[in-house]
## 1
Amino acid sequence: QSALTQPRSVSGSPGQSVTISCTGTSSDIGGSSYVSWYQQHPGKAPKLMIYDVTERPSGVPARFSGSKSGSTAYLTISGLQADDESDYYCCSYAGSYTFAIFGGGTRLTVL
Amino acid sequence: EVQLVESGGGLVQPGGSLRLSCAASGFTFSNFWMHWVRQAPGEGLVWVSRIHTEGSSTNYADSVEGRFTISRDNAKNTVHLQMNSLRADDTAVYYCVRGLYGPSVGFDYWGQGALVTVSS
């Protein structure tokens, strides 16, 4: 099964909003309520930002939100801050055998 | 405080074996599915394997099926990844990860990672 498709890079200015897309198929995102998003700073372990499509773990700012339409999931970051500059990965449930599949990652640059 | 600490990484020749271990603390280990996720240098994240809370069920990515074995010891709060027939493309940082619950791909705690290098 191929990785989920994410844009290689996105950018935005401080205070603006950006949306990162993550496209899969009916076998993963399209058929699942289990999509998550991770933030990874260079040299660090990933951090869970969104799970189950729209849920935010405790401690994650409300500026981060998740949604899904068909086989595409979205991560929206509003009120961009310098510290949001990072790599972002989506992940979807892909069935009881394969279980999980990640996207290729998106580099967010805060201009 | 939840902690996941990996050990056992290192340099191994192609065709060789390595066993990663992950020591968990700060939570009721036996209540959570545990996973391994890897990341090749400069590349993205790849899910590798998971194990049920009681060790009764396991899953693997196609790329490691038949070569890797995940196991756990709930008495010692540890999870292991036995890696056999290693190939160059297995070179990666391997993260021990806690799953939120059964089918969720919400991985809420990650270890610091263990580097595995497969090279002659």
Note: The interface with chain A takes residues 35, 37, 44-47, 50, 59, 61-62, 95, 100, 103-108, 110-113 of chain B (CB under 8 Å).
## 2
Amino acid sequence: DIQMTQSPSSLSASVGDRVTITCRASQTISKYLNWYQQKPGKAPKLLIYAASSLQSGVSSRFSGSGSGTDFALTISSLQPEDFATYYCQQSYSPPPMTFGQGTRLEIK
Amino acid sequence: QVQLVESGGGVVQPGRSLRLSCAASGFTFSSYGMHWVRQAPGKGLEWVAVIWYDGSNKYYADSVKGRFTISRDNSKNTLYLQMNSLRAEDTAVYYCAIEIAAATVYWGQGTLVTVSS
């Protein structure tokens, strides 16, 4: 199975900061990489699909990049509502549709 | 609008069974693959199972293979997860989700399963 490794596991940042979260696959997955945001007690929300495509209705301050094994999610200017946990997910060789372990983004 | 509503969670003793349901509306249910994903308390997301749009293929995580069965009734717009031989480590919130273009785009609100004696 393909393993997904996110870094960092947690991150403290301030409103207005630019933040980048990375995700590495254990083997090439082309651009089959999705990013999700999850807030406490809520279901995950799709932000980015196919590595760099912005899901409808998602703020343009979110962007994704990468292909092959290395990917990144960037938030251009953090807003208060962005403090949450973020997960990457590979969909290259499902099943399984493996998730990364998550990155918790906290307010500094 | 797309709506997924899970039900059937609760407290169950180890070794017993439980069946989860996911009622779908607002889209053509019979056209999409469906997933179950779970999240143990305070932990990350774990993919559990997927079923093809027509039920022709089903796949499971190694952690549930042989104990859980995913199924669907397209006439009732409902997805199921039959969970047998439950263990403490199966305690989690279980979400159903629709797969569109290789992403789990829409998710339900989740249903909590607690396995405890």
Note: Chain B touches chain A at residues 35, 44-47, 49-50, 59-61, 95, 101-105, 107-110 (CB under 8 Å).
